[in-house]
Amino acid sequence: MRRGGLQRLHTKPVNMDELVRVVQTSVGGKTELADSPGEASATARVDFARSAIQSTLPMDDPEIRELIAEFAATIPERIDAIEKALNMMDYNTIANLAHALKGAGGTAGFQCLTDVSLRIEESAAERHAEGIGGMLHELRSINERIVV
């Protein structure tokens, strides 16, 4: 991105807080920095919470679109399975299910699923139930916004 003679390069994976800050700064908007890494400003959260999420794969290919639709249809039951394991405090199962969703989400072109699933997997390793509960809520929100 070029602004004021400066060029900024960003690597993958994309840090959403940094992306929001750079875009807001570039278009002259108010920038609210997050209090901690991974915590977007309230304004940014509202904007992203309403936005549709689409796969980064070529959805104009009918076969890929069908595969993505089939995957998307499995997301609610995957989330439910993680929640069931959480209710049973079965951290190994939580980690395994989150790991599977992380890989499948990435393969299907949904980095947002990969990011949250990785955090769930890490929280399961630390046996942090409260954090996992919040991330399950985040997964459900993401699922509601997925458009195939």
Name its key features:
mainly alpha, Four Helix Bundle (Hemerythrin (Met), subunit A), 2 domains, two-stranded antiparallel ribbon, elongated
- The low-pLDDT segments are 1-7, 30-41
Q: Cα distance, first to last residue?
A: 29 Å
Which structural class is indicated by helix and strand composition?
A: mainly alpha
State the CATH architecture of the largest domain: Up-down Bundle
* CATH homologous superfamily annotation of the largest domain: HPT domain
CATH class of the largest domain: Mainly Alpha
Named CATH topology of the largest domain: Four Helix Bundle (Hemerythrin (Met), subunit A)
List SSEs in N-to-C order: EEHHHHHH
Helix tally? 6
Envelope shape: elongated
Task: Return the average pLDDT rounded to an integer.
Answer: 81
Q: What is the helix fraction of residues, given as a range? A: 55-70%
Strand order of the largest sheet: 1-2
Query: What number of domains?
Result: 2
Number of strands: 2
Largest sheet: 2 strands, antiparallel
Strand content: under 5%
Description:
By secondary structure, the protein is an all-alpha fold. The chain has 2 domains: 49 residues, no CATH class; 84 residues, HPT domain (Four Helix Bundle (Hemerythrin (Met), subunit A)), CATH 1.20.120. α3 runs antiparallel to α6.
